[in-house]
Amino acid sequence: ILFDLNEVAVNRHNVIKRRNTTTGASAAAVASLASGPLSHSASFNSPMGSTEELNSKGTLNVDQGDDKSNDLVLSCPYFRNEIGGEGERNISLTKSNSGSFSGCESASFESTLSSHCTNAGVAVLEVPNENLVLHLDRAKRYIVEHVDLGAYYYRKFFYQKEHWNYFGADENLGPVAVSIRREKPEEIKENGSQYNYRIIFRTSELTTLRGTVLEDAIPSTAKHCTARGLPLKEVLEHVVPELNIHCLRLAFNTPKVTEQLMKLDEQGLSYQLKVGIMYCKSGQSTEEEMYNNESAGPAFEEFLQLLGERVRLKGFEKYRAQLDTKTDSTGTHSLYTTYKEYEIMFHVSTMLPYTPNNKQQLLRKRHIGNDIVTIVFQEPGAESFSPKNIRSHFQHVFVIVRVHNPCTDNVCYS
To answer: Locate the Rap-GAP domain: which residues (predicted)?
Structure first.
């Protein structure tokens, strides 16, 4: 877990200078157009989706992609392809367990966990109170990555309990908000004199730092483990030495302050997700071709049944993902499912309204083109996909699925 305050202080100045940055499919499309008509057509003939022609005058800084391609997807500027064989770094609490997961039976619990749960799915590192078997069972299930599971840390350990909140503007780190609470650990609350400090350190650039430090571990001129506790200044200087303590001001713990801090910590949580699905027939590769497939073929219908339930939109009362549930203006049906506490609505191209003699099919693209994640379903014989064929400022992640032996007992997907 990297938490480099010095680095963020340097990067902050670059972030301030940066304005709108073209990324994702729009960046790939711009890079493709910048290469000129001759090289643009040539790039589709290259087995690797060659992008060396992008190094024309004025485009020397174009990201070249990762040069990874296969039958499903081509290498593309500004994109990184995961086509299989990528390793997953092991997360552990000791250096002896770090590195790549070996898969051996003697691996530690952390190694066992990492084989099922990627680093992107870990947000809280604390000693678990639950039974180890329960953790092993939970680790075998698929997780939703990049979820800030520590977002409820303030609600659980600070809200409506005695604590202190400090706010300030550090010269190097920018706006900061610090919450700190002194408490007895649960396991010795009855007859022990040990204390610890829970701390939340928030900045505008860094991932929020949340954790606990034993009072005995903090160097101080004051006496440890007394009813009064250590000077909070010394606690903060020990935990975040790069922070200028003098910029902080103590806030009143009014309901408005504590509720705003909860909103700040939890604003990134979302349990409603929308995903686009595009249908690519044999010989197709461009978004215009995919959007203009009026209806789904048997292979596509078979695939959709794996993802979720076909629901009637009119009168639908659950997560609708901007679809019309009153007048059928966005189609009569859609695809919906739930996973754990998440609701997922799919924007399926063939379920959205089709407009004859309209190349762009804006009634479809207005939804799928605004989805960050898009599944591209390929029938056998479809051309390799490239994000440079997509014109969108929002589409950044593409999941390419190709069916083999559709509508048979031997159907499978790659």
So the answer is: 261-414
